[in-house]
Amino acid sequence: MEMIIVASEQQKRLIMIFSRTTAKQPDKALIKDLDSYKINSSVYPAFKAASDLRVERIRLPFGDDKNSALDGGDFLYRYLAKGYICLGDFVGQPKPDLSPWGVRSVRKQPKIGFGL
């Protein structure tokens, strides 16, 4: 199982992609293929065009949704704590658990995404 984070440091925005299998695409191909992911955010077109996109791949324990949620939450919290905004609405499993870091709810920005 894998969680992929595509982030732009200049824009302070990111997207998360979840997969039950490990993605075979190299990072450059994944970035070129961002049109194939449906992200419900009005700023997604500008995000896809960013020149500083980078990919981080996080392997999550397969079949252990509780630990996968904690691991995913750890990586997501690292970005959100730096001021990043996660684009779109959350879709996918496992849902990252941010509660160990004291986060009970996220701040939603209509038509954009969510952050701390």
User: Percent of residues in beta strands?
Assistant: 25-35%
Overall pLDDT level? 89
Please count the helical segments. 3
The Cα radius of gyration reads 13 Å
Q: What's the domain count?
A: 1
The biggest beta sheet, please? 6 strands, mixed
pLDDT below 50 for ≥5 consecutive residues: which ranges?
none
**Into which percent range does the helicity of residues fall?**
10-25%
User: Total number of β-strand segments?
Assistant: 6
Structural class: alpha+beta
First CA to last CA: what distance? 26 Å
Order of helices and strands: EEHHEHEEE
Biggest sheet, spatial arrangement of strands: 3-1-2-4-6-5
- Shape estimate: globular
Task: Tell me about this structure.
The chain is α+β, with helices and mostly antiparallel strands and 116 residues long. It has one domain. The chain is built from three helices and six strands; from the N terminus they run E-E-H-H-E-H-E-E-E. It has helices spanning 27-32, 44-48, 65-81, and strands at residues 2-8, 13-19, 53-59, 85-87, 107-109, 113-115. A hairpin with a 4-residue loop joins strand 1 (2-8) and strand 2. The longest helix is centred in the middle third of the chain and has 17 residues, at 65-81. The chain is globular and about 35 Å long. The relative contact order is 0.23. The mean pLDDT is 89.
